[in-house]
Model the fold of this input.
Amino acid sequence: MNGSVTSSVTVNGVPRTWTLPARTSLADALRDSLGLTGTRLGCEHGVCGACTVVIDGRPARSCLTLAAACDGGDVRTVEGLAGRTVDALRTAFSAEHGLQCGFCTSGMLVTGCDIVDRRRELAADGELSGEVVRGELAGNLCRCTGYVGIVRAVVRAAKDVDAQDVEAQQRGPIPEEGSP
Ligand code: FES
Ligand code: FES
Done:
């Protein structure tokens, strides 16, 4: 045995099979084997959150996760985020000055998408307070911004996405073609 392990993982919707030394972290596998360098490596000790990706639907530290442990799993990195939640977050991060050097931003966006998607769990009306967002983002560190813009951006994105839902509900179902 040469200490390597073969595992199959779906990354951003694409099935991948990799054979890597058993102790290779998911972060290293994503960055070095697949070139997905949007996943940042900061502390490599599970503290800063820069390496956050989504594993089987939940945000997780890719520096603390072994690539081999993801066998059969589904991984989404910042490169694979798509849809209205991340669109709203990108717009809000820009409008609220939620980044400076950008090192933490991948992890912030991955965690931010999870927060926005859970907004109705976190607040009955989907309007997140800054305090709630600060608590949810506690595992993502930023050395530059002082967090104010980041928190405002997540609050704003949640509000925007929720407003889209309310508007869609008020409009009701789209009438079928040919109906009066
Ligand atoms: S690099 Fe993974 S938590 Fe810091
Ligand atoms: S923007 Fe530089 S670490 Fe967050």
Summary: The mean pLDDT is 95. The two ends are 71 Å apart (CA to CA). The domain at 84-170 is CATH 1.10.150.120 (DNA polymerase; domain 1). The chain has two domains: 4-77, 84-170.
